[in-house]
Amino acid sequence: xxxxxxxxxxxxxxxxxxxxxxxxxxxxxxxxxxxxxxxxxxxxxxxxxxxxxxxxxxxxxxxxxxxxxxxxxxxxxxxxxxxxxxxxxxxxxxxxxxxxxxxxxxxxxxxxxxxxxxxxxxxxxxxxxxxxxxxxxxxxxxxxxxxxxxxxxxxxxxxxxxxxxxxxxxxxxxxxxxxxxxxxxxxxxxxxxxxxxxxxxxxxxxxxxxxxxxxxxxxxxxxxxxxxxxxxxxxxxxx
Length: 239
Description:
It is a single chain. This protein is α/β, with parallel strands linked by helices. The chain contains 3 helices and 22 strands. The strands form 3 sheets. Strands 2, 3, 5, 7, 9, 10, 12, 13, 15, 16, 18 and 19 form a 12-stranded parallel β-sheet that branches. A hairpin with a 4-residue loop joins strand 20 (177-180) and strand 21 (185-189). The protein is globular.
């Protein structure tokens, strides 16, 4: 046990020193009048529309958030996820998270006549590899890994979708229920513990996101795109 504890301490020291050296190097370059840019573009302007995020939103360096996308407080978009607000708007609510490789897309028009936006409410967890298309996900929803929610679908509040669930276009998942399968079918009614778990899971992911936010400070979340630097006539180096 002592050996394991020693190895763990060494790993922490190595990580901390490495991070300090990286940040010191970045500070020296900045002091010399150079700006740092990254080749990856987590946030991309499209048709003059820039994604909106608050200071406490986490967007992973390898994620892509494009166009008309709103990320509200303490939301998170994880590694490899793609959020495309190119055909219609996308909204991601307070303390909601899109986990690794999630794809959020929109269509140009819905048969229902409603706006084809993709709305993701508060305290929503979207599992890894899931796909959402111009649907409405209300507050306190847990979507398992590799789920698909098609255009025009409505998932009401306090719902759990089991991993691999497929919600067809224009379907409705009623509040307070657990659904699963392809196509989605009713499994059970949620109890109080299930409902509490939805919020706890979202809060746990938010806490984890804070660890990643601090790892990428000071410039990981605040770098300027190279073209913006060039407009200012400032020398830039790749970080």
